[in-house]
Amino acid sequence: MKIGFLTLGCKVNQYEADSLAQTLSGMGHEICEELQSDLDMVFLSTCAVTNEAERKSRQMISKINKICPKAKIFVCGCASQNDSKHFEDKKNVCVIVGTSGKEWLTKMLDESGCYVVDAPYDYEEMSAPKKHRTRSYLKIQDGCNNFCTYCLIPYIRGRSRSRKLESIVVEAFNMAKQSKEIVLTGIDLSSWGEDLNCDIISLIDSLKTINARIRFSSMEAKIINNNFLKALKEMPNFCPHFHLSMQSGANKTLKDMNRKYTKEEYLKKVEMIHDAFPEGAVTTDLIVGFPTETEEDFLETLNTIKKAKFADIHIFPYSKRNKTVAARYKQIDGEVMQNRVERATKLKDELHQEFLLSQIGTNQEVLLEQDVVGGYMVGHSRNFSKIYVEKQKLKSGDLVVAKVLRLFKDGLLAEVVQKI
Length: 420
Known about the structure:
By secondary structure, the protein is an alpha/beta fold.
């Protein structure tokens, strides 16, 4: 059969989709990464982190039916876990699972029905995913125990559970045979090992001889301490990009969000990172318009952002999620929220440009990822700066050392000094 994949949401979803694709390929099926009219089947991985993400997940059913009208549709992920009824009556939808039991899908190609179950208590292993020449994702954790008042994920993904160290290391070494960079990912990556009585330092030590760049996805502030940073400094393949989730820079809002740290504690963690990795980048997530956020709270957040000097910020307008504590609060006016989003975005753009300008004149190791119009290739440095170089005889997956020349497009233009 000819099978397509459509994957929405986070890196965990991408890892799980890659795993399913590899299993199905091993069974003799032809895998397509894009929707085509002659597909026999489509696997849709859904997202429910915001109302918009969940709405888009439902809309994808219509898109699939329009492009490949004869394809059977298999739905999985957070949106189907949260409310499977939204998918049960959709045309051509045959099988629905949630966030767990995705491996079942490969054995249910001739089945139909809804098989959404509660999340398991133990980490659920999946088959090794397909490998990419550039960047591959390696899932090491699932679930979350934080119960932030705005977030559905603990209810959808279940409690935090860690993948065993031995399993991670084996897969990392196998990935490195083809991939030049491995991104460790999870729903709450910073909680890895807590249920295994295992320290994340042991994970770092086990991966520092891998022949590939190692990057961590989103982290929580609690993970940053001297021992953690020391271990990373001794890891020659570590990419010094810290996506340190903040959500708000106002103490009252942080408390209302149940974020379990103050802005002062968060800023101290950022300072520790900058001291340990002067060449590194700290990026973050920001929720604007949380129900209890006042104008004074928002101004406090902007001030915290200025002090942190983030390299980049992912800004999200608050999205009301039923079943969460914050859904019971009085919501902020839409125009007020939009105004705050615009002001936060203006500051984000200023800080991002300031960070890019600081890279000019430096040599950066760049993993080239794809061609772009105009005879260029684009990739990312270890600190995740977006860098363009002239294509010449280069190809996707090449590692080069490049000297940064100037601002260019949405990143930087650099001149290749050496191919690694």
